[in-house]
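Before drawing any conclusions, I looked closely at one protein, both as residues and as discrete backbone shape codes, quoted below without any editing:
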Amino acid sequence: MELTTEVLSKFVGGVMEISNRVENHHYMGKIQEIEVKDGMLIVKFHWLIKKNGRQWKKVSPISYLGNLKICNLSDIGRDRLFICIPVVEETSILYLPTDSKLNQVEVLRTS
């Protein structure tokens, strides 16, 4: 699967969930802009929250950069895209704006 800015544009307004086992972090953010440039995935968020224990807290900076040359990509159904970077043990899932996950995240963000 080859990712392009055009292919990813359907995720604008949706959610990106990012987890890293090595650094033990879990983030979720509402996608404002998403693009592929020079082999890199660049995502800017309207807002970004980080799980801290059982609580979610708003954090910054509110952008994400991933090297697509070292990623494994999978369509996991329901128009969700799974991105895995094994070298740093990081995984991400992109959700469409119409996905029910967005409602769950909005509740987390405002609580």
